[in-house]
Automatic annotation (TrEMBL):
Record organism: Deinococcus antarcticus
EC number(s) from the headed UniProt entry: 2.7.4.8
SUPFAM superfamilies: P-loop containing nucleoside triphosphate hydrolases
PROSITE patterns, alphabetized: GUANYLATE_KINASE_1, GUANYLATE_KINASE_2
Transmembrane regions listed in the UniProt entry: none
Catalytic activity: GMP + ATP = GDP + ADP
Name of this protein: Guanylate kinase
Job description of the protein: Essential for recycling GMP and indirectly, cGMP.
Family annotation (HAMAP family): Guanylate_kinase
Binding site for ATP: 23-30
Taxonomic lineage of the native organism: Bacteria, Thermotogati, Deinococcota, Deinococci, Deinococcales
Sorted UniProt keywords: ATP-binding, Cytoplasm, Kinase, Nucleotide-binding, Transferase
Subcellular localization(s) per the UniProt record: Cytoplasm
C-alpha cells in the first residue's frame, strides 16, 4: 500500500501557467478574458491602481483602488511583480497571490499594459506566456474606445497615441492574437493555454487535443509577424 512517509512523498503537482494578456486599452482584453475563462478555475490577478473607479466598478473586484501614497509604499516594499504608469495613473500586479497560485498548480492570468508585460518577461523569463492582443486597425480601436464610453475624448486620444507605440512592440511577445472575430480569438487563447500545458508534458502523454492545439498555435506565433504588418495596423 502507498504511504505518505517521506520516502514516498505525494507526487508534486506541475506548476500552473503564467499567462499574460497585453495590448492597447480598448482592444478587447477584458471581453476576451471573460469569454475565455468563464468555465475555468484560473487565478485572475486583481491589480492595484491609482485611477478613479468608473461607474459600476467595485473596489477589490475590477481593481484595488488606492492613493498614490499607498501605491508607492507597496512598490517600495517590492510588493509588485510589475508596475507601470499608464496615462497619468499607476497600475501594478501584487506579487504574493501569484506565486502561491502557481505553486498549487493553478493557472494565473494577468491583463496588463505593454511596459508591465515586458517587466514580467524580464523577471519570469520563459515561464511567462506572453500574448499580445492586436486590434484589426487603429480606426477600429478608436471605434471600440468611443463605443465603450468610459473615457473623455482627451483620454481616448492619449490612449490611442500610446496604442501606436504598444502595437509596434507586438513582436516581442510569444503570441499575437488578432481580436477581430471574438469567437476565433477565444479559440486561439484556449489553444495557447492547451499547447503551453502540453509543452510541460512528455510527448508520450499527449492527447489528440494537445497535438491539435500545438499545431493551431503555430499560426498565432509572433515570429509570423512582419514589421510591415504592424505598420499596416497603426496606419489603418
Ligand atoms: N502594467 C500594468 N498594467 C495594468 C495593470 N492593470 C491594468 N493594466 C492596464 O492598464 C491599462 C489601463 O487600464 P484601465 O484604466 O482599466 O483602462 P481599460 O483597460 O481601457 O479599461 C490597460 O491596458 C490595462 O490592461 C497592472 O497591474 N499592471
Ligand atoms: N472582437 C470584438 N469585436 C467588436 N467589439 C469588441 C470586440 N472585443 C471587444 N469589443 C468591444 O470593445 C470595447 C473595449 O473592450 P474591453 O474588453 O473593455 O477592452 P480592454 O479591456 O482591452 O480595454 C468594449 O465595448 C467591447 O464590447
Amino acid at each position: 500500500m502507498m504511504s505518505d512517509s517521506p520516502s514516498n512523498p505525494a507526487p508534486k503537482v506541475p506548476r500552473g501557467l503564467l499567462i499574460v494578456m497585453t495590448g492597447a486599452s480598448g482592444v478587447g482584453k477584458g471581453t476576451l478574458r471573460e469569454q475565455w475563462l468563464k468555465d475555468q478555475d484560473v487565478f485572475y490577478s486583481t491589480s492595484w491602481t491609482t485611477r478613479e473607479p468608473r461607474e459600476g466598478e467595485v473596489n477589490g473586484r475590477e481593481y484595488v483602488f488606492v492613493t498614490p501614497e499607498e501605491f508607492l509604499t507597496k512598490a517600495s516594499q517590492n510588493g509588485f511583480l510589475e508596475h507601470a504608469q499608464f496615462v497619468g495613473n499607476h497600475y501594478g500586479t501584487p506579487i504574493e497571490p501569484i506565486e502561491a497560485a502557481l505553486e498549487r498548480g493553478q493557472d494565473v492570468v494577468l491583463e496588463i499594459e505593454v511596459e508591465g508585460a515586458m517587466q514580467v518577461k524580464e523577471r519570469m523569463g520563459e515561464e511567462a506566456v506572453l500574448v499580445f492582443i492586436m486590434p484589426p486597425s487603429l480606426t477600429e480601436l478608436r471605434r471600440r474606445l468611443t463605443g465603450r464610453a468610459t473615457e473623455t475624448p482627451d483620454r481616448i486620444e492619449k490612449r490611442l497615441t500610446r496604442a501606436t507605440d504598444e502595437i509596434r512592440e507586438a513582436h516581442r511577445f510569444r503570441y499575437v492574437v488578432v481580436n477581430d472575430d471574438l469567437d476565433r480569438a477565444v479559440r486561439e487563447m484556449r489553444a495557447v493555454q492547451q499547447a503551453e500545458r502540453a509543452a510541460q508534458k512528455r510527448r508520450e502523454d499527449w492527447t489528440p487535443e494537445d497535438y491539435a492545439a500545438t499545431e493551431a498555435v503555430q499560426r498565432v506565433h509572433s515570429r509570423n509577424l512582419s514589421a510591415a504588418e504592424l505598420e499596416k495596423v497603426v496606419s489603418s
